[in-house]
What we know:
This protein is α+β, with helices and mostly antiparallel strands. It has 2 domains: 21-107, Phosphorylase Kinase, domain 1 (2-Layer Sandwich); 112-296, Transferase(Phosphotransferase) domain 1 (Transferase(Phosphotransferase), domain 1), CATH 1.10.510.10. It is built from 8 helices and 9 strands. It has helices spanning 68-83, 114-119, 126-145, 208-224, 234-243, 249-252, 258-267, 279-292; strands at 21-22, 25-33, 37-44, 55-60, 94-96, 103-107, 112-113, 158-160, 166-168. The strands form 2 sheets. Strands 1-2-3-4-6-5 form a 6-stranded antiparallel β-sheet, with helices on one face. Strands 7-8-9 form a 3-stranded antiparallel β-sheet. Mean pLDDT is 88; it is low at 1-16 and 183-187.
Amino acid sequence: MPATTIKPVPTLGPPTETPARIGQWQLVRMIGEGQLCRVYAARPVSHAAERAAVYALKVLSERWSADSAAIEVLRREAIVGRTLSHPHLVSVLSAHVAAAPYFVVMPLLEGVALSQRLAGGDRLSLPMALWIARQTAEALDALHQAGWMHADVKPNNLFLSPDGHVTLLDLGFARRPDDTTSIINRCVTGTMHYIAPEMITSALRPDIRSDIYSLGATLYELLTGRPPFVARSLEQLADLHRQGEPEPLRMLTPTVPANVARFVHQMLSKQPLRRPQTPVEAIERLVTLEIETFNLR
């Protein structure tokens, strides 16, 4: 597998006015924007205007509408999201990916991305952090059982409901472990803090253990308030993932139990063989840690 080319996210212009309609969907408001797509709250045009929007349309941005690799990302999200059903995986209800405008239809979720909680300075309790990690591991297990890896686990792709339910989003970069090519030379600014070493080197082929590394990086941030590595450039950050060691978790947050810290550092091992080998193994460890830290609720 060739090494990943690292490049910054292109600057997007200010959001254009929300189009009134796409196909049979009335777009109510824009609720999010990513590197490739914009997401709108929507309702079928057959529904009365006073009815609440209960769907989300993820629409490929115009600037990418002629890019075959970007279109393939949305098509892959449609394939994975429509063939897999799991409480912690985002569902794709329908899709229009054969011709422009390209979009997928999903349920409109209530809550915020975990990255928003972290950006607001919200420090989660240890039991809550472990619960979020376990729910994410359960979503990864569903993907793994179906022969996929997610390949982009990070706080921005974990949606947290008001009652703490986690939904893993953004299935467009999902890949088969034997896939030796990337469907897009994607921008990695938001991903690089959580990316496994083998995702950015030709030495090892990524697999589900790469997702476990990314989950470990996310859990590290939940417990310390910062990702495992911080650098001034994407290249330096990549080098740290390949060769550096994160600061011991308990140096940053001494109240974290030693057994929890050991598990997080195991997930962050440079060698995939030293990490939990499957999401099920990670789930079992997380359940044990949840039980052992129950009194900290």
